[in-house]
Specification:
It comes from Orrella daihaiensis. Keywords: Cytoplasm, FAD, Flavoprotein, Methyltransferase, Multifunctional enzyme, Oxidoreductase, S-adenosyl-L-methionine, Transferase, tRNA processing. This is FAD-dependent oxidoreductase. This protein is an alpha+beta fold. It is globular, with a radius of gyration of 21 Å.
């Protein structure tokens, strides 16, 4: 196993781009401002506060109110490429962190229920031979092919096809997780929109739309999803965006989930069932079905078309006809994904901007990246070596901003 902590070898040091991840005692921060209180911003805030730092989180809205549940489903590739390895690492780190958090606080916000990625029907879009993929991947403890009968047994509901079984999948009640993270001692919440940031001595000043100062700290983490590049540009840091290798292509993609009555889905599955979208185990009698992808949307909103898509999707995944009145006003949640080409997050310090970090582009896998990204930022801002032993150069390069 490659240990970054042990192996600060010449090749690694020579790669100037990697400097933002190297140990720098002067990078140690006392007070960190986190812009954005979503899944990743809240995880960074909690982890920094757990390390003894003072943290101020600023956000105007509770973006995940109504996002009753989401799934952590790992991805694999036949050649176990950096995305596949990063996703496995992210999932393992999240698993450990969430288990500890539930044990320490006694608050339950999720369960390691496992996830099935069903084989798409022949002839459907983006259909891959998942059985062949799992066999070549050859890590059955992490991802293994299961035939239809076994898949049905794992999901405790009859399923139409077999698929890949990921025992490491988690069902997360998003508002509960975020609420618990934000309640970490040392985290202070401020409810306001951040318009700009500026240098203030060795640190950073964060301002609202009227130019009023909101908070001053010695480091800032921009975890405001699709607004990261907008905020940098409003602050006069266009060049900082251009200096990043990936960030300039950041864009937003809206989508929605729909809550379906579990009794119309034969009680719903006992694990995550995905393929084209996903259906989640029931929470308080409702199964989440989602999520849609709406390109070019002006607003993130629940629509009749989105509800229909999510009803049909649940029916296809579970091989049943939900018999739900399509025009019924079903509850749901709509939100934005921040996306970069390649679907990997951007986590790192902005070049030439001391103690200005970004954590964005989490696309549809914010749960997978949240703990991995928070650990990297925590290590940097507490002046420690990277504590995630399995990270190698290719993986770090793949997520740099
Ligand atoms: C329909 C749908 C279904 C999804 N399902 C899943 C799933 O099952 N599993 C999964 O892992 N992911 C899922 N995702 C993706 C997941 O929601 C994101 O990956 C995740 O929220 C990213 O976390 P984040 O903290 O980077 O951004 P967010 O959680 O989006 O948080 C960003 C925060 O920044 C705030 N903000 C923005 N601009 C400013 C500003 N100027 N000042 C202050 N605050 C600001 C916003 O209000 C928001 O609270 C889904 C997304 C959608 C839309």
């Amino acid at each position: 196993m490659f240990h970054v902590t042990d192996c600060f070898d010449a090749a690694y040091l020579l790669n100037a781009k990697m400097n933002r991840y190297l140990v720098d005692a002067s990078a140690h921060a006392n007070h960190v401002i986190v812009v954005g209180s979503g899944i990743c911003g809240s995880t960074v805030a909690a982890m920094l506060a757990q390390s003894g730092l003072k943290v101020t989180v600023i956000d105007a809205v509770a973006a995940h109110k109504g996002h009753i549940a989401a799934a952590l489903t790992p991805v694999i590739s036949s050649d176990d490429n950096p995305r596949s390895r990063l996703s496995r690492l992210g999932a393992r780190l999240a698993d450990r962190y969430w288990r500890d958090l539930q044990a320490e606080t006694g608050v339950r916000f999720g369960s390691a229920c496992g996830a099935l990625q069903l084989q798409r029907p022949d002839g459907s879009k983006r259909a891959q031979d998942l059985k062949a993929q799992a066999e070549v991947f050859a890590q059955p403890h992490w991802a293994r092919w299961v035939e239809r009968d076994q898949a049905s047994e794992l999901a405790a509901i009859e399923l139409p096809r077999g698929g890949i079984w990921y025992p490491g999948g988690w069902l997360i009640q998003v508002p509960e997780l975020i609420g618990l993270l934000q309640a970490t001692p040392g985290v202070q919440m401020m409810f306001c929109e951040v318009n700009s940031i500026e240098r203030a001595g060795q640190g950073w000043l964060v301002k609202d739309v009227k130019g009023n100062p909101l908070a001053q700290g010695d480091a800032v983490v921009l975890a405001n999803a699709g607004d990261v590049t907008g905020l940098l540009k409003r602050s006069g840091f266009e060049q900082a965006v251009s200096a990043c290798s990936r960030l300039a292509a950041l864009h937003r993609l809206a989508g929605e989930i729909t809550l379906l009555p579990a009794d119309r889905l034969r009680g719903g599955p006992s694990c995550i069932v995905g393929g084209d979208g996903y259906v989640l185990p029931a929470i308080d009698g409702w199964c989440v079905s989602g999520g849609t992808y709406v390109r070019g949307a002006q607003r993130a909103e629940c629509t009749e078309m989105g509800i229909r898509t999510n009803i049909d999707r649940a029916g296809q995944l579970l091989g049943l006809s939900p018999e739900i009145d399509r025009y019924q006003n079903l509850p749901g949640w709509a939100g934005w994904r921040a996306v970069l080409p390649g679907r990997l997050p951007a986590i790192g310090q902005i070049p030439s901007m001391p103690k200005l970090w970004v954590f964005t582009a989490n696309a549809s896998r914010g749960l997978t990246w949240s703990v991995l990204g928070a650990m990297l930022i925590r290590d940097a801002l507490t002046g420690q070596k990277i504590s995630i032993g399995e990270l190698d150069q290719r993986m770090l390069s793949a997520i740099e901003p």
